[in-house]
């Protein structure tokens, strides 16, 4: 699943829409459920079903399921024009109609080829196929609906947590930044003007939707502007070492994925130390992954401020919703350094 597909699970206020059935993962799920249904029907018959019956039933059922899934894929554009409720009802009715059409064609083909398949009356055969597919589709679509609602709810909760985190962070950061700008105006007005522009860009970036991907180069630019603001405040106590030349700027990432990590590094690793320290940001593309590592000094025990947990948990949840198991956020530390390693699938950003 690509990042775009993962983030296209955005839903309108009325409900959630069904998937398009064009993805190979969903097709594999359909084929697996179909084969399970064949086995259940076979073992529900008197005696043990023979390999011939299982093979023929599986062949028919798999072709039937792929035919229905292909029809849903082809008509997904039309389905998307309906309301969410209408879309779910529409794909169920369409699935039943496709099953009826396929079973009728299969019956005709058997008659033309003079195959002795011990088929029942054509009307009864088509009716049984339509009813079986209708019941299976009803159960499967119900599962997809509940899963989509669950994911939409998690996404909404994650976005709410992002907004809550920003609401908690922004006043503190804003007051510090304004005080820094006020102190710069009489002695370095040009730097003060640049600081105001950086502050505006940072807050403009924080107003983006949490699930709207942006190019990595934009996220890095906002990260640089944030650290520039902190360097104006902390002065020589904050030393930043950027090693991001090998990062692909066109990689698609979630907004505000780096800034909370950098804020943790400054707040928990640099600021509590009277002498400050070096914050290092380095990354590169490793195969089909983009890896960014942030390192900061470990603060003295007496200045411990409660850890990095809130932002890390929030970002981990956002990564899980957008990428599943293909993304990770790992932390580790030794006596001197604290490390955060962010790994994302490399997907090129496209404007939509």
UniProtKB/TrEMBL annotation:
<protein>
    <submittedName>
        <fullName>Histidine kinase</fullName>
    </submittedName>
</protein>
<keyword id="KW-0472">Membrane</keyword>
<feature type="transmembrane region" description="Helical">
    <location>
        <begin position="125"/>
        <end position="145"/>
    </location>
</feature>
<dbReference type="InterPro" id="IPR010559">
    <property type="entry name" value="Sig_transdc_His_kin_internal"/>
</dbReference>
<keyword id="KW-0418">Kinase</keyword>
<feature type="domain" description="Signal transduction histidine kinase internal region">
    <location>
        <begin position="160"/>
        <end position="238"/>
    </location>
</feature>
<dbReference type="InterPro" id="IPR050640">
    <property type="entry name" value="Bact_2-comp_sensor_kinase"/>
</dbReference>
<keyword id="KW-1133">Transmembrane helix</keyword>
<dbReference type="GO" id="GO:0000155">
    <property type="term" value="F:phosphorelay sensor kinase activity"/>
</dbReference>
<keyword id="KW-0808">Transferase</keyword>
<feature type="transmembrane region" description="Helical">
    <location>
        <begin position="50"/>
        <end position="74"/>
    </location>
</feature>
<feature type="transmembrane region" description="Helical">
    <location>
        <begin position="21"/>
        <end position="44"/>
    </location>
</feature>
<feature type="transmembrane region" description="Helical">
    <location>
        <begin position="86"/>
        <end position="105"/>
    </location>
</feature>
<dbReference type="Pfam" id="PF06580">
    <property type="entry name" value="His_kinase"/>
</dbReference>
<dbReference type="InterPro" id="IPR036890">
    <property type="entry name" value="HATPase_C_sf"/>
</dbReference>
<dbReference type="GO" id="GO:0016020">
    <property type="term" value="C:membrane"/>
</dbReference>
<keyword id="KW-0812">Transmembrane</keyword>
């Amino acid at each position: 699943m690509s990042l775009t597909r993962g983030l296209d699970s955005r839903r309108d206020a009325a409900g959630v829409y069904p998937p398009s059935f064009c993805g190979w993962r969903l097709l594999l799920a359909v084929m697996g459920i179909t084969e399970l249904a064949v086995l259940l029907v076979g073992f529900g018959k008197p005696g043990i079903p023979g390999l011939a019956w299982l093979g023929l039933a599986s062949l028919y059922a798999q072709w039937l399921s792929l035919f229905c899934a292909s029809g849903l894929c082809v008509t997904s554009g039309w389905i998307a024009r309906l309301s969410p409720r209408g879309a779910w009802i529409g794909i169920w009715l369409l699935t039943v109609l496709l099953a009826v059409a396929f079973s009728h064609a299969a019956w005709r083909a058997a008659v033309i080829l003079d195959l002795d398949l011990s088929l029942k009356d054509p009307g009864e055969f088509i009716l049984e196929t339509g009813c079986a597919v209708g019941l299976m589709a009803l159960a499967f679509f119900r599962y997809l609906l509940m899963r989509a609602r669950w994911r939409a709810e998690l996404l909404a909760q994650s976005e709410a947590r992002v907004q809550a985190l920003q609401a908690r962070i922004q006043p503190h950061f804003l007051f510090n930044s304004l005080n820094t700008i006020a102190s710069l105006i009489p002695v370095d007005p040009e730097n003060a003007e640049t600081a105001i522009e950086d502050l505006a860009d940072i807050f403009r970036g924080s107003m983006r939707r949490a699930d709207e991907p942006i190019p990595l180069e934009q996220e890095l630019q906002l990260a640089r502007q944030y650290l520039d603001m902190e360097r104006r405040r902390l002065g020589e106590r904050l030393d930043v070492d950027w090693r991001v030349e090998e990062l692909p700027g066109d990689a698609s990432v979630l907004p505000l994925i780096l800034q909370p990590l950098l804020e943790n590094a400054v707040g928990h690793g640099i600021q509590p130390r009277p002498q400050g320290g070096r914050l290092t940001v380095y990354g590169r593309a490793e195969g089909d992954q983009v890896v960014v590592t942030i390192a900061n000094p470990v603060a003295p025990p007496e200045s411990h401020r409660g850890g990095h947990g809130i932002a890390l948990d929030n970002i981990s949840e956002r990564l899980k919703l957008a990428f599943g198991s293909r993304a990770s956020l790992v932390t580790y530390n030794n006596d001197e350094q604290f490390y955060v390693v962010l790994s994302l699938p490399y997907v090129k950003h496209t404007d939509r």
